[in-house]
Design goal:
Layout: H1 9-19, H2 25-37, H3 41-46, H4 54-68, H5 73-77, E1 79-82, E2 85-88, H6 99-109, E3 118-122, H7 128-136, E4 141-146, H8 149-161, E5 167-171, E6 183-188, H9 221-229, E7 234-243, H10 249-259, E8 262-268, E9 274-281
Parallel strand pairs: 3-4, 3-6, 4-5, 6-7
Antiparallel strand pairs: 1-2, 7-9, 8-9
The protein binds S-adenosylmethionine.
S-adenosylmethionine binds next to α7 and β4.
């Protein structure tokens, strides 16, 4: 009996769309086949009638199975775009979110481009915040910390891949990694989901590191720890910017006021939800 002919690119995509969750559709099929072939979307379009070799079909099938089982697309591709950067991500790192770009924007508004400012990013994960700031402020010295050695390894690779040599990495729990140091601006997207929150069992969150997501019964344990010692690590007129859940703005403002921050305010994300609270340390 003659072997069945290899499917072409277009046929592979049609078959994949039928297997993938309805929300994924052709876009995800193209991303995964493009990844297996190491080609972009335009190439897939232009080569729709090219036959797909058996080894690529097998690789594509494995990616589809993992996606159907719920694995995040960013982990399957091993990368995610953030700000202007293409960042490597692994299951040791949170997948950077577009919401966090709001935190970067607010930080940049407070960082003059012509001064040698010192910036810290607490809980850097893939390096997203630190590297985005460093890419926009070449004179800034940026220190990125994390309690996870595996996450820091990824962040270091991302710094090297983007030629961001003024970013330095420190291992340790929150301020322990920065003993005796002061900064002009500290930004953090710490874990802030309440333990037991049902969202932790849904979507991408099921696959991301628990240590990057949840923080005590109300989700605020890490934010409390960061705010409590922030005054010892900020220069006068230095800024602390914290990303948080959309129902935590009032609580974070109250925590900042309680230790003496001024100009405390909560800013919203693109969907008009509270997302970042910031304050200035009067010194
Ligand atoms: C929500 S993720 C944010 C990652 C990255 N900044 C981003 O926005 O994509 C929180 C990060 O904090 C780190 N983390 C958790 N507990 C920590 C601690 N006690 N000290 C330092 N980093 C911690 C996690 O490993 C994780 O990388």
């Amino acid at each position: 009996m003659a072997a069945s002919p290899s499917p072409d690119v277009g046929q592979c995509l049609v078959a994949a769309v039928a297997r993938l969750p309805a929300d994924d559709g052709r876009h995800v099929a193209e991303l995964l086949l493009g990844h297996a072939l190491q080609r972009d979307r335009a190439w897939l379009f232009a080569h729709a009638r090219d036959l797909v070799p058996a080894d690529i079909q097998a690789e594509f099938d494995a990616l589809l199975r993992r996606r159907i089982a719920g694995e995040p697309i960013a982990y399957l591709l091993g990368k995610r775009g953030f700000w202007t950067l293409d960042l490597q991500v692994t299951p040791a790192t949170l997948i950077p979110r577009a919401d966090t770009e709001r935190l970067v924007e607010l930080a940049l508004e407070r960082l003059p481009a012509d001064q040698n400012v010192r910036v810290a990013d607490l809980g850097t994960g893939s390096g997203a915040i630190a590297l985005a700031i460093a890419s926009e402020r070449p004179l800034a010295e940026v220190i990125a910390t994390d309690a996870s050695t595996d996450a820091l390894d990824v962040a270091r690779l991302n710094a090297a891949a983007n030629d961001l040599t003024r970013v330095h990495f420190r291992l340790g729990s929150w301020w322990e990694a920065l003993a005796g140091e002061r900064f002009d601006l500290v930004a953090s997207n710490p874990p802030y989901i309440a333990e037991g929150d049902p969202h932790l069992q849904q979507g991408d969150l099921r696959h991301e590191p628990a240590s990057a997501l949840s923080s005590g019964v109300d989700g605020l344990d890490d934010i409390r720890a960061i705010i409590a010692s922030a005054p010892r690590h900020l220069h006068g007129d230095g800024w602390l910017l914290l990303e948080h859940g959309h129902q935590q703005g009032a609580a974070v403002r109250q925590l900042l006021h309680a230790v003496g921050f001024v100009e405390v305010a909560t800013e919203q994300d693109l969907e008009h939800r509270d997302r970042v609270t910031l304050g200035c340390w009067p010194g």
